[in-house]
Amino acid sequence: MNTFSKKAPIRVAVTGAAGNIGYALLFRIASGQMFGPDQPVALNLIEIEPGMAALRGVAMELDDCAFPLVAEIVQTSDLSVGFKDVDWALLVGSVPRKQGMERADLLGINGKVFVGQGKAINDYAKSSVRVLVVGNPCNTNCLIAMKSAPNIPDEQFFAMTRLDENRAKTQLAHKAGVAVKEVSELCVWGNHSPSMYPDFENAKIGRSKVTDVILDQAWLRDTFVPTVGQRGKAIIDARGASSAASAANAVVDTVRDLSNPTRGDLHSVCVISNGEYGSPAGIITSLPIRVDGAGKWRVVEGVKLSDYAKEKIAASNQELLEEREVAFGQLGLSI
Ligand code: LMR
Question: Is 229 in the pocket of ligand 1 (CB under 6 A)?
C-alpha cells in the first residue's frame, strides 16, 4: 500500500465539471497538482442536467487515467449531493461571455445560479469549506454566494484574479526579456474586469523594481495595464471561446497557494474587504495575500501605493459597488 493512501481525501466539488475549464482542471486536480503528490482527493463533479451525458464521458476519462490519488468520483446535478461534506467548492460553471460582451453583462444571467449554490454550500458542505468562484463576473458572483451562505465565514470565500496576475507577469517578462520566474510581487487589485489594476510599481524583476528595469512609463501605463485588463477579450477574439486551460491553471495556482504557507512571493486573490487600503468594506476585491504558517491568509500590509495606483484601484472598486447594487437589486438580496 502507498503511504499517501493513509491521508484522508480532500473532497473537492467542481461545478461546470464537463465544461471547457472543468475539462482542463479535473485532470490536474486528480494528478496531484493542486494538493500535492501524496494527497488523495474525492471529486464531486456537478453539472446541470443537460451536461450529465458529457459529464459521464469526463468521468470515464478520469477512470481511464487510473490516477492513484483519486479516492472517489461523484457525478451529480443535485447540489445537495454535490456539495455534501466538501472541503473545497470550485464554482467554475456559468454562462461564459461571448464576443462583444463584458463580464458584467453576465450578472443577470449568472447571478441567480450563485444564490442556489451558496445556499447549498451553506446547508451541505463542511463548515470549514473554502469556496473559489471562477464563473463571471466572479467577484460579484462570489459576494452573492457568500451572502447566500450565512453560516460559512466570509473569509472562506474567494474569487479569481490569479489568471490576471499570471498574465501580467508574463507581459512584464516579455517586455524586459527575462524569464517569467524573475517577476514577483505583482498584485492585481480590484475587479476581475478591464478596470483591474496590475500594480507594476511595486512589482519586481529579479531584485530590482520593475520601473527601474522597464523605463518606458508610457508603455507601463498605456500598454501594459490595458493589455492585462483586456487579455480575456483578446483570448475570446483569437480562440472564439473564452480562456479555459489558462483559467484552469490559475485555479490550481490559487487553491495550491491558499492551502500552503506562502514562501516569498505574494499573490492576488479576491477576498472580503475589511477596508484595507481604502477599499470599501463588504465587497469581494482583489488584494495582495500571503498565507501564514498556521494556514491563515492575510492581506499583505505596508504596500506603498502611488496616487496613480490609488485612483485606478478606487475606480475598480467603485465598479464593484455598482455591480453589487445591480445584482443585489435583481436578486432581492440586502447588503
Ligand atoms: C478571462 O479572463 O479570460 C475569463 O474571465 C473569461 C473572460 O470572459 O474574460
Answer: no
Q: According to CATH, what is the number of the domain 3-159?
A: 3.40.50.720
pTM for this predicted structure:
0.97
SS3 of 120, please? Answer: helix
Give yes or no for residue 271 CB within 6 A of ligand 1: no
Domain range list for the chain:
3-159, 162-324
Q: What is the mean pLDDT of residues 118-126?
A: 98
pLDDT in tens, 186-203: 999 999 999 999 999 999
Per the annotation, the verdict on 192 as an active-site residue is yes
| Residue-level pLDDT at 86 | 99
Give the three-state DSSP class for 296: coil
Q: Could you give the ipTM of this predicted complex?
A: 0.98
Q: What is the DSSP string of 58-87?
A: HHHHHHHHT-TTEEEEEEES-HHHHTTT-S
Q: Write the CATH number of the domain with boundaries 162-324.
A: 3.90.110.10
